[in-house]
Amino acid sequence: MRKTMVIATATLFAGLLSGCPKDSPPEPDSSPSAGAFLGECGGARDDDIRTITGLPTLVAVARNGLKCVWESSGRDRRVMFTWFRDSPIERERTIATVSGKAVADFSIDGFHGFTANATSLCQVAVQDGADFFHWLILAPGIDCTVLRPLARLTVDRAHAWAPAPTQPPGRLDELLHECTAVPPDDIMSTVGESGRSEMYFHGAVCMWRIGGHVDLTFGWLENGSVEREEGIARQLGYQITAITSAGWQGFSQRRPGQPATCGVTTSDSGAVTWWVQSATGDPCETAERLMALTVRRRV
Predict the structure, then answer these.
(1) What PROSITE patterns is this protein classified in (predicted)?
(2) Distances in Å between the alpha carbon of 142 and those of 47, 53, 55, 138, 229?
């Protein structure tokens, strides 16, 4: 009886549909498009960083597809670029506000974002469509007006791009817990380094330095995709290798001529990436182990 009723109902429904006009065309996708390709370090060269900031002793200490870091030998001065792809800028603004930074609106050539400053700390984030980029300067007595030429450098060198539609604020899942995908003790045991673990940036992109020898980057691009991340890695000229592991699939990426640096990306509530820079061991193996822990914990 139940089967007969279902068939009869389906037949009636199909008949009603046959008398209806054709479906209207789907509404256009209102979600923001991806921002421009910024290149590694937002197009900045080492000399640009030293000249704009007035910090002549800075040297590059970390580079990958998500970030670049320059530091002085004493590590009391730091400049950092981070490329947040498919990530809401409101997450970083909220984190800066909760952290007690002096947050203010910022705009340059039609692009909008915010600054978040404190004693000896200057930050600017600028949105382009679904993406945004972020510059940070940490130095005693730094004048935060240098944020504007840094932001302009990135805008100007990304082939004179025009602003894409901005991303409206939405729900911010895991706010203030973005860096807890893998517990600190598990990170230390996986990396196999002794010594102090220093988290020097947190948010949708988290960064650690362990024992002074290993640099880690974890990126959770919550609206991202593995396909876009792989495409950007290829644009950057990185060496790509497909990965199929227990419970997840993705790819590894290496910077040419930099065997000590490797990133691993997979899909998990967006796109997630671990970058490992280490003078010892195989950084891809370490990144894969960290990724396995991440996927296992988030299941």
Answers:
(1) PROKAR_LIPOPROTEIN
(2) 18, 8, 10, 7, 34
